[in-house]
Design brief:
0% strand; rod-shaped
């Protein structure tokens, strides 16, 4: 009986080691994904900001042109 329990304990310990190793891998992947998310957010903010500047300039140019036409 004791030998059977010892075997089960050994199996459980080995399983827990495997679970801990898998958890470390998952945590590493989660960190990588979070880093990628931050990089993508920063890239999109920069890209949208650049587009906004172009649109503002186009709007200002159009407004100046229209103002000159009516004056």
């Amino acid at each position: 009986m004791m030998s059977a329990l010892e075997g089960q304990v050994t199996n459980l310990e080995e399983s827990m080691y495997g679970v801990n190793e898998t958890l470390k891998v998952v945590e590493g992947r989660t960190d990588e994904l979070n880093s990628m998310r931050v990089q993508l957010r920063d890239y999109m903010a920069e890209a949208l900001g650049a587009n906004l500047d172009v649109l503002k300039e186009a709007l200002n140019t159009t407004m100046v042109d229209q103002t000159e036409k009516f004056n």
